[in-house]
Specification:
The chain is α+β, with helices and mostly antiparallel strands. It has 10 helices and 31 strands.
């Protein structure tokens, strides 16, 4: 079931803003030359819908944009813009364009402004902050740190624009839960509408998903706007990849109820023609998306990515077979000839609900061989956590699990420390454990990266969501951007250099387990 569309009311500037006719004197100076507007509250406004060239038609307006931006970043209560001679007819356009372009400014949703009654020139802007300033400063720091960690963990050297976009999209979908309960109860908190809620708290609604996508893609230099569709109370993105524009709806690519480890691609890099089958928006207001270069993605329902392959179940209900798609050659290979809408991958095996055989739980090798029956129960919602495969019995709703440690086709040989110094094993660490590794020589910070410091799971799979940085010249920090599942892991440190250019005497390998 797709999640219901949800978006804070987005009002168009021209002819659509409700502003009370009530005005009052800012100063009681007798000539009524300086009056202040009523509060204009847009819970959020997608100013990216306004054509940038038409809006910022001259350098003066560009300077005003910067003035407002700086004022909001510095949490100013009063931004004086009298010298710009901007009429009241333009100020809300420019103010909300600043917000639409900058999802990191998630803490204001409206404004008041004072203006000259005769000339209608705006004098001061009074931003309306939705949190206390101390809270804003704390949340902003959290968000900035989280963004840096995410970028460091999922973006690798030499990635193409598409690979970067997919990595950001996958991170958001895999680490976010749609705020369905609050949506149904009409109690959606402010955080769920913005990038902070999605990236820091891991929960939100469509507006938050789209602002998080924009924030992260902007950070890595990929053009992205938020498309607001009040026609369906929904929002998504338009992204530019290799010079071509595409629709991306990360919200609808995130299954409800949340299914661990699974990502859809039906709404990744979609053209207008395909998007119109399920979405409604103001077609004349937004950039045209005509390319079908990524049409191969639109058939992908639930999926798992392993290196340069996507394993997925088809969207066609009559042919929910599992396929393997090669991202290098853009070719697909059919793995099963039975329907498998629910599946998980562990080591060299795919575990799946065989909907051609009553939904019973089966497994099959990644190469399509060794099809094996595991139970005769209709099994759904299959996922892996640590050394176990979990599934839910469709008829009873009971959650079951079985251990998969016995299947060690591709696991790390924990006794093989050839070429590495073995550090003491750490048992039952916390799921959010950060490692601080200290050295007695100052390190070359250029050698501190995910290639030289990394973590693998029990089966030898490289973890992509580990943030590597340096605390100081002597200390490396390895932090998970999302919690580890329970199980066994290995920390590797290799090819580090000191500031003088000397290589680390010994590479290091450390085993640890998560409770």
């Amino acid at each position: 079931m797709f999640k219901k569309r949800n978006l804070l009311l987005i009002l168009l500037i021209i002819g659509s803003i409700f502003v009370s006719t009530n005005i009052y004197a800012e100063t009681n100076n007798g000539d009524n030359s300086n009056v202040i507007s009523s509060e204009i509250w847009f819970e959020k406004y997608n100013s990216s819908s306004i054509d940038n060239i038409k809006l910022l038609s001259n350098s003066l307006e560009e300077e005003l944009y910067s003035k407002i931006y700086d004022g909001l970043i510095n949490l100013e209560d009063n931004i004086n813009i009298q010298s710009f001679n901007i009429p009241i007819s333009k100020i809300t356009d420019i103010y909300f364009k600043v917000l639409g372009d900058n999802p990191q400014i998630f803490y204001t949703g409206g404004l008041k402004y004072s203006y000259n009654l005769d000339s209608k020139i705006v004098i001061n802007i009074y931003p309306k902050y939705i949190y206390d300033k101390t809270v804003i400063q704390s949340k902003t720091k959290e968000l900035d740190n989280k963004v840096d960690k995410i970028i460091s963990s999922v973006i690798k050297p030499n990635m193409s624009e598409f690979e970067k976009e997919k990595a950001i999209h996958d991170y958001i979908v895999l680490n976010t839960k749609y705020d369905q309960k609050n949506y149904e109860n009409g109690t959606i908190p402010k955080d769920s509408y913005n990038a902070y809620g999605i990236l820091v708290k891991g929960i939100g609604v469509c507006q938050g998903y789209s602002e998080a996508m924009k924030l992260l893609l902007d950070k890595i230099g990929i053009d992205c706007i938020v498309l607001a569709a009040p026609e369906m109370d929904h929002a998504w993105n338009i992204v530019t990849i290799d010079g071509k524009k595409y629709h991306v709806d990360a919200t609808w690519n995130d299954p409800i109820p949340d299914r661990k480890g699974l990502v859809r691609y039906k709404y990744l890099n979609v053209c207008d023609e395909e998007m119109k089958k399920t979405h409604i928006w103001d077609y004349d207001k937004y950039p045209k998306c005509t390319s079908r270069d990524y049409s191969f993605l639109w058939d992908i329902d639930s999926s798992k990515s392993i290196e340069n392959y996507i394993y997925y179940a088809s969207n066609e209900k009559s042919k929910e077979y599992i396929y393997k798609f090669d991202l290098n050659t853009f070719k697909k290979e059919q793995i099963t000839n039975v329907r498998a809408p629910y599946f998980e991958i562990a080591a060299d095996w795919i575990y799946f609900s065989n909907y051609s055989k009553g939904g019973y739980l089966y497994k099959i090798k990644l190469d399509g061989t060794s099809l094996t029956l595991l139970n005769k129960v209709h099994s759904i919602d299959i996922y892996r956590e640590g050394d176990y495969i979990y599934y839910t019995e469709y008829d009873t709703g009971l959650k079951r699990k079985f251990e998969i440690k016995v299947e060690k086709d591709s696991e790390i040989d924990e006794e093989d420390y050839t070429g590495y110094k073995k550090w003491e094993e750490s048992l039952n660490v916390a799921p959010n454990k950060s490692w601080a590794i200290e050295f007695n020589l100052a390190l070359d910070k250029n050698s501190i990266n995910n290639k030289n410091v990394y973590i693998k799971d029990y089966y030898g799979n490289l973890l992509s969501d580990i943030y590597i940085n340096s605390k100081d010249d002597f200390t490396i920090i390895a932090t998970p951007t999302r919690n580890y599942n329970s199980g066994t892991y290995y920390l590797y440190i290799e090819n580090l250099k000191s500031k003088t250019g000397k290589l680390l005497k010994e590479n290091v390998k450390m085993k640890f387990s998560v409770k």
